[in-house]
Structures are given as structure tokens and as C-alpha cells.
Design brief:
With 150 residues, the protein is mainly α. 66% of the residues lie in helices and 10% in strands.
């Protein structure tokens, strides 16, 4: 005799969940495609653009950048080295702990990061069609999916 759990489809397999997953994948894919194009316009790789974008928000040590981008710290060191060679990023002592070096955008790096952010229309334009309440709800749902507090 079948149990109720064998007759009930897994939440991972139900058609609505699969449709939502496919839509999230499509949104992420389009965002990455546009991000790569914007980065190329500034003669940056996508990884360099992502690092510069993070540093534009706040200077941070390489280890923290690696954690946020879910990659090896040695990869971040190479990316920061190349951004530094182009004059877009500098390393400076952390005021809270002078043993730690922070990567931070230079004035030129901040301008490039701002230009990158301003050229990303894919996410911004469709979101503008949502009401304030809908954007709040979407934000809270995404935070909940990521295990963050709403």
C-alpha cells in the first residue's frame, strides 16, 4: 500500500516550483549576460567588474571578497592585482586593524563602478514596473529564500 508521502509529489518536483526555478534561472542568466557586456565596455572581465562593484559599496579585505563571491582568496588576489595595475583599486590598511589590508576603489575605480551600475538596465527596468509594495514583497521573499531575516 502506498503511503501518503509516496503519492504526494516532492515540493522540489511540483510543476509550480519547477516553473519558479526556471524563471529565477532565466533572470539570473539575463542579468549575467548584461553584466558581462557592461564589463566588456569598460575592458573588464565579469569577475573584475563584480569585485569593483563590491568594493564600490565598501572597501573590504580579500578574504571577505572571496566569501561574498564564493571563490578562492588567491583568485581574488589576482583580480585585485589586475584592477590595481589599471589604477581602479588600491590596497590600504584597515583603520580597525592595521595588520589587515583593505581593497578599495580609487576615484577612477568608483567612476567605472558607477558607470557599470548605471548601465545595468535589465534588473532595474522591470522592477520599476512593480509597485513599491510588490518590490518590498519580492525583496522579503528573496531574503527568506536566502535564509536572511526579512
Amino acid at each position: 500500500m502506498a503511503t501518503s508521502s509516496s503519492r504526494t509529489p516532492s515540493p522540489r518536483a511540483d510543476p509550480l516550483t519547477l516553473q519558479v526555478v526556471e524563471l529565477i534561472g532565466a533572470v539570473v542568466g539575463r542579468y549575467h549576460e548584461e553584466y558581462e557586456e557592461a564589463a566588456a565596455e569598460h575592458s573588464l572581465t565579469g569577475a573584475q567588474a563584480r569585485v569593483l562593484g563590491l568594493l564600490f559599496i565598501e572597501p573590504m579585505p580579500m578574504r571577505r571578497i572571496a566569501q561574498k563571491l564564493k571563490c578562492e582568496p588567491s583568485n581574488i588576489t589576482g583580480i585585485v592585482d589586475r584592477l590595481e595595475a589599471r589604477g581602479l583599486v588600491e590596497r590600504r590598511p584597515d583603520p580597525a586593524d592595521r595588520r589587515v589590508k583593505l581593497a578599495a576603489p580609487t576615484a577612477e575605480g568608483a567612476d567605472v563602478a558607477r558607470g557599470l551600475r548605471d548601465s545595468l538596465n535589465f534588473a532595474r527596468e522591470p522592477l520599476a514596473e512593480l509597485s513599491h509594495e510588490e518590490r518590498l514583497s519580492l525583496r522579503d521573499l528573496l531574503r527568506r529564500m536566502l535564509g536572511e531575516e526579512a
